[in-house]
Structure formats: structure tokens, C-alpha cells
Amino acid sequence: MAEPTNTPMPPSTPVPASTPRSSSPLQQYSIPSLTPNATTTTIPLWPSTTSSPDTTPRKPQRPIVLHIGDPIKYNPDTYAEFSTAFEVIRPSTPERERIEFIRALKEKRWGDFSAIFRPFWGTGGEMGRWDAELIDLLPSSVEIFASAGAGFDWADTKILGEKGIIYCNSGLAAAEAVADFSVAMIISTFRHLPWCMNAATLPYLSSSPTSPSEARKAFRECHASATAASHNPRGHTLGLIGFGNIGQQIAAKMGSPAFGMRIAYYDVVRKPVEVEKELKATFHDTLEWLMKVSDCVVLCTPASADGRPIITAETLGYLKPGARFVNIARGSLVDEEALADALDHGVVGAAALDVHLKEPSVNERLARMATRLGFGEKGYHPGRVMLTCHNAGGTVETHVGFEELSMRNILAVVRDRREAVTPVNLYWLKDRTIQRPEKSL
């Protein structure tokens, strides 16, 4: 998860105040203004129609959209346009539990809906993985599934495509936030920020209080020793595994004069020469060669279709001794035990991981490397791993974009009969007279 093409996210389309809206009671939702120092703003929301126990077949005048998850929060103007164009049905939370959801699909409780709309990553997934069991029950009228989030390993996009359903993610909306977070993680691997932060603060936060003299010793040891292990990113080669929206934004930031890194990338499909020239990026046609030339490798590619990791003991063995590694893609793409071994043996000098194989749990060996003070048995310095909680895409602006982009995708396909903005599974679609995109990481 192939990444969407680099299409600029369309802005919200304002609607006149006279636009017809639901006659349901007006709800309100308060959010902080995105303008610095501004006060909290209360915006109106137009609630979706909730499902009814009445299963009498009906013929709606507007296409039906099944809205799974919470009501919209950030884009009321676009939602007014959306709810005018479609009859929006939002199943209750109990109806979204897998057993009841399956029962509802079998009963055709929500009629012949045309689209599935999931505007938030935190809600709407109560039914679990969208596999053959669920997808086979969808009515033939469904044309598109538009969801928040960049990842889509929770939905079988191949089966959806073979059923004629376009799946659209919202990775485009998260690209800037993820790229910004990646910059912090890359810098961490060059400057060993976990070590510096732990030495300054962990002695005071430990469950077994550290004496003042031990705390001062940890501070002084880091102050004296971190220098010998730290480097400026400038002039080093940054290797990007995957060169879609996120990879290209990372390249633009780290390859700029501000950081001055050399950019290399590997992708299953080479990008146009114009893109490479603009970003001063060098293409490598094998993962092995990318790993060999890189001083820091960033994994920013979709989850593999077969579920197998890309970063293994074999691929880590291609790295220069002491190279750095960052993962902001998917935990399933990394053999975490192999990475811990590589860190133990100095094959990898430092690492930063925002995503983990068994979220919300993290690998115990990596966690110890992230927090341990004092030098290890092999003399490698502590705090060589930064671990975060799948935070890379998590900003208010990202969620605004998730919501907006999901609606824009459905409006484009169902109302306007145009191509989707951010489709990811066109390769698998059958019986559609559309140009299939290049399949890439």
C-alpha cells in the first residue's frame, strides 16, 4: 500500500448557506481553531441518517452511502454537499460489530448502497478485517470504499478490486505529517536523541530512584561520549524504500539545502526522470544495492501483499557497518528480532521505529535498547533506538484531510462519474474501462 499518485488534495468546496440540509436536529462539535492563539470554535454538524429496524425495500432518489464510524468533525461545508448528493446511512456502534454487521449485510438492511465511507481511523473498524467473508456479502451496487488512513492492510484490496470496488486510502492527506515525523527520526539516528534524553531525565523517573550522584554521572557520560557517536546528516546518503508521496516528501525535506543529504531510492517501478531530477534522487533497481550505498535507510512502502517482511537478517546484512534504519511504514515489514540482532552486533548503529509488529506492544529487546543507560556488553552506547506509538501521521491537519479526501473520492466516483482521486487497487479491478496504474511500492 501501491501508493496513490501525487495528485494535490482538492480543497473543500464551499456551499451557499441556502444549501438544503437534513431536517434532523442540528448537532454541534467544538474543535480548537487551527489558527495560533485563536479561541475554540463551535461548528455545526449535520447528522447522518441512522439505520432503522424497518427492512422494507425502498428506492432512494439519491445513491446510498454507508458511513461507518463517527460523524464528521472538520469539514461541514463539504459534508453539506455530500449529504445533499447522497442518502447517508450511519449504522449504530452495535451494528458495526462483526456478527451483527454480517447479519445486516445478509438482510440487506441498508439497501443497495453505492459507497462505503470511513472518515476516521479510530472508529468504523469494529467489524474487523475486510476479508472475503465481508466483501462477498456487499451488494453489487457498491462502487467505492473510501477510508481514512494511509495503510490498508486491514482490507483485502485485491478481492475488493475483483468485485469491481475501488478502494481509496487517504495517504495523501497524511504525507506531510509522516514526512515531518520521519525527519525527526532520521535526525535521531544521527544524533542519538534517545540516549541524550534518557541520560538527562530517566534517572529521575525510574521506579527505583537514582541517587543524585548517579544521575550526574549519567548526564556527564552522555555529554562526554555522545559526541564520538554523533554525526551531521549532511553529505550522507539517505536510502528510501518506496518513493510514493511520503518518500518524495522526505526526499524534498532531507535533500534540501537545509539538510543536504544525498537521496537514493528503490521502488518496483522507477519514477519519471522529471521527478528524479527535481528531487536529485538516484534510482537503484535492487533493494540490495540501495542498502549497500545508504548511510540511513527509511522504510516508507506499503505492506507487502504476501505479508512477508522486507527487512530481514539477509537484507540487513547488505548495510554498511553502523548504518541507520527508520520505519514509518508498517511493523509487519520488519523482522524485529533480526533488527535487534543487527543492533546488538553493530551492523545497525541506530534505529527509529514508529510502527511495530504487535501493536500496541513493542519488541522487548528493542524497548530495552531504547531506554537502557550505561554501556552494553559489546561496548555499544545506550539509547540507540527511538520508539514511538504509531504517531507519524497523527496531526489535526491529517484528520481534516482524511475526512475531506474520503468524501471527495466518493463524490468524484458516484456523483460526478469521474476517476477517484486516490485509488490504490485499480490494478485488480475487472470489467472497468479505465487505465490501470503502474503497480509500485
Automatic annotation (TrEMBL):
It comes from the Eukaryota. GO terms for molecular function: glyoxylate reductase (NADPH) activity; hydroxypyruvate reductase [NAD(P)H] activity; NAD binding. This is D-mandelate dehydrogenase. Residues 39-55 have a biased composition (Low complexity). It comes from Triangularia setosa. Keywords: Oxidoreductase. Residues 1-62 are annotated as: Disordered. Residues 15-38 have a biased composition (Polar residues). One of its GO terms (cellular component) is cytosol. Belongs to the D-isomer specific 2-hydroxyacid dehydrogenase family. Transmembrane segments: none annotated. Residues 130-416 form the D-isomer specific 2-hydroxyacid dehydrogenase catalytic domain. Residues 224-369 form the D-isomer specific 2-hydroxyacid dehydrogenase NAD-binding domain.
